[in-house]
Amino acid sequence: MAVNFKDKTGTEQFQSYLRSHQNDVKSKAQNNYYHADVVADAFSEGFNAGEKSGIKTGREEIVAKLVKNKVEELTQKATQVYILSGRIVDHIRKRGNKVDSFHLNIFHENPKVIIAVNNELLLNDEFITSTYSKIFEIKRIFDELFGVDLDMGLVGSSDLDLELLSQDGYQYSEEFE
Questions:
Q1: Is residue 175 pLDDT above 80, yes or no?
Q2: At residue 31, does pLDDT exceed 50?
Q3: 165 closest CA partner among 97, 120, 121, 100
Q4: pLDDT confidence bin for 107, thresholds 50/70/90
Q5: Other CB atoms within 10 A of residue 144 CB
Q6: Residue 65 CB: number of other CB atoms within 10 A?
Q7: DSSP string, the chain
């Protein structure tokens, strides 16, 4: 979803995007994580076997809580990805350069950001050194906050295929004039 920066502030647009995708959070994880139903069954069995504690929690309640926590975690990570991407855009602009767009994939385990600039800028060693120094700083901040990597990089905008980006999970974009 490409966004015209003048319609709404980027933050308003991004928060709207997040709200529209809250139901996309799956109740199961990938890469060696148990499905939420398995975890809920284990919790239910534990609570049923431990009647002496007097606490009973239903399976549905546990699944709902797990999904809610996952949505909150995704929202926090996504918001930070957006804010930190904005810092890179500001860094580039303050040095007199133009950013054409940025593209976010917030649903990946390690969120991903692509910042599109004029192809000529990618041949400018000073621009590359300065921008990637800032990107490294931003990635370190994200890792300290969430303990996962933030993949972030620059790409030339002249041959950027937005449809292919969308298919690769970059479903939120902002374009600048």
A1: yes
A2: no
A3: 100
A4: confident
A5: 8
A6: 14
A7: ---BTTTS-HHHHHHHHHHHTGGG--SS--SSPPPHHHHHHHHHHHHHHTGGG-----HHHHHHHHHHHHHHHHHHHHHHHHHHHHHHHHHHHHTT--EEEEEEE-SSSS-EEEEEE-GGGGG-HHHHHHHHHHHHHHHHHHHHHHSS--EEEEEESTT--HHHHHHTT--EEEE--
Long-range contacts of 92-97 (CB under 8 A, 24+ apart): 92/117, 92/127, 92/131, 95/127, 95/130, 97/121, 97/127
Query: Residue 145 and residue 149: Cα distance in Å, rounded?
Result: 10
- Write down how long the chain is: 177
- Name the token pair of 135: 């990107």
Residue-wise over 101-116: b if at least 16 C-beta within 10 A, else e? bbbbbbbeeebbbbbb
pLDDT tens per residue across span 148-162? 999 999 999 998 998
Indicate the pTM of the whole model: 0.67
Token digits of residue 37: 């139903």
